[in-house]
Specification:
The chain has 206 residues and is of the alpha/beta class. It has helices spanning 16-23, 31-42, 47-54, 59-70, 74-87, 92-103, 116-125, 138-141, 148-157, 172-180, 191-200, and strands at residues 2-5, 108-112, 134-137, 165-169, 184-187. It has a 5-stranded parallel sheet, sandwiched between helices.
Length: 206
């Protein structure tokens, strides 16, 4: 079984609410304002941000688009965009599990919605990404999850039929799309839960 990891929220910590409260506290003053700001900026990972993930919008245009659409100051939007890589810190429990899987000779892959500047940052700063045999960053193929095309591309690129792949993602729509295409897939909450589910399904056997 080939094991495919999402990155943000799985291999790397991703808590946008905490990031917003840290970077723009005057806008993310409490839970309701933080929730509203998150929706304004990230649009549930669609809209402007989805095009950033797809690689069809670069940072300057993204900042301008969000500022114009929301009325937020461009400086605040820029601060948020610039802060994302600092928020994407390795999740120690997942990295420890990855090291174990790599040591066992498991075939590890990644499938991540990630704009090019962030993808380059992660590859530059995290040597353990060398444990992955291959992977896809959305911006480099101009496709994003949960669109079916990126899953079909991934299966082809990873040299596997869908039934030979097990996929972990924290975002349920991505998990549901993978399952609809015949992948084995679970929603990731933490490394212990994911390991237990993969074991219970027999996906770590052998």
């Amino acid at each position: 079984m080939k094991i495919v990891f999402d990155f943000a929220g799985v291999v790397f910590h991703w808590q946008p609410e905490r990031m917003l409260q840290r970077e723009v506290p005057h806008l993310a003053r409490d839970e309701p304002s933080t929730r509203h700001l998150k929706q304004q900026v990230f649009q549930a990972w669609g809209g402007d941000w989805g095009e950033f993930d797809r690689g069809t919008v670069e940072v300057p245009a993204l900042v301008l688009r969000i500022a114009r659409r929301t009325g937020l100051a461009a400086g605040d939007v820029q601060r948020i965009v610039d802060a994302v890589p600092r928020e994407l810190q390795p999740a120690p429990d997942t990295v420890a599990w990855l090291e174990e899987l790599h040591g066992q000779g498991r075939e590890l892959f990644y499938l991540s919605n990630m704009p090019e500047p962030y993808a380059a940052h992660l590859q530059r700063e995290n040597a353990f990404l060398g444990w992955f045999r291959d992977g896809i960053f959305s911006a480099r193929v101009h496709q994003i999850k949960p669109e079916r095309e990126i899953f079909e591309l991934a299966a082809t690129r990873f040299g596997a039929t869908p039934s030979e792949l097990v996929f972990m993602d924290d975002h349920l729509p991505n998990v549901e799309m993978a399952r609809s295409l015949g992948w084995n897939a679970i929603q990731f909450h933490d490394a212990a839960q994911a390991r237990a589910e993969l074991s219970a399904n027999g996906w770590l056997a052998g």
